[in-house]
Amino acid sequence: MPEEFAHPPLILGLHKIRRGGWWDHTNVRPDQLTGILKSLIDRGYCFVDLETAVTHAQPRQIAITIDDGYAHLSESLPPICEQFGLKPYLFIPAGYVGQ
């Protein structure tokens, strides 16, 4: 395996982080996500920003990405980021800003 691929980046892609009401296959409740993140830490993983994960990938590093930038993330995401020191990368479709 070439050296640059010795440690492929690990990326946890999320979509919705919301309690109650909006249930589908793309949603995870904040308490579920907290459990997942704690489990990863217990297994020796650490969280890094997306640039670090891609350009300087190391074993047991994980970046977090979140698609679509739903408004509910402004409530559910900050406490989780603070608790775990996350710097997630949000993909926000510009055409939907304000909707």
Task: Describe, in plain words, how this protein is organized in 3D.
This protein is of the alpha/beta class and 99 residues long. It contains 3 helices and 6 strands, in the order βββαβαβαβ. It has helices at residues 30-42, 50-55, 73-84; strands at residues 10-14, 16-17, 27-28, 46-47, 61-67, 89-91. Helix 2 links the parallel strand 4 and strand 5 (61-67). Helix 1 (30-42) packs parallel to helix 3 (73-84). The longest helix has 13 residues, at 30-42. The N and C termini lie far apart (46 Å).
In terms of topology, how is this protein built?
Blueprint: E1 10-14, E2 16-17, E3 27-28, H1 30-42, E4 46-47, H2 50-55, E5 61-67, H3 73-84, E6 89-91
Parallel strand pairs: 1-5, 2-3, 4-5, 5-6
Q: In summary, what is this structure?
A:
It is built from three helices and six strands, in the order βββαβαβαβ. With 99 residues, the protein is α/β, with parallel strands linked by helices.
Which terms summarize this structure?
6 strands, alpha/beta, 99 residues
Helix/strand structural class:
alpha/beta
| Helix percentage range | 25-40%
- List the secondary-structure elements in sequence, H or E: EEEHEHEHE
Strand content: 15-25%
Biggest sheet features = 4 strands, parallel
Number of strand elements = 6
Instruction: Tell me the distance between the termini.
Output: 46 Å
Gyration radius, to the nearest Å?
15 Å
Question: For the residues shown, what is the average pLDDT?
Answer: 88
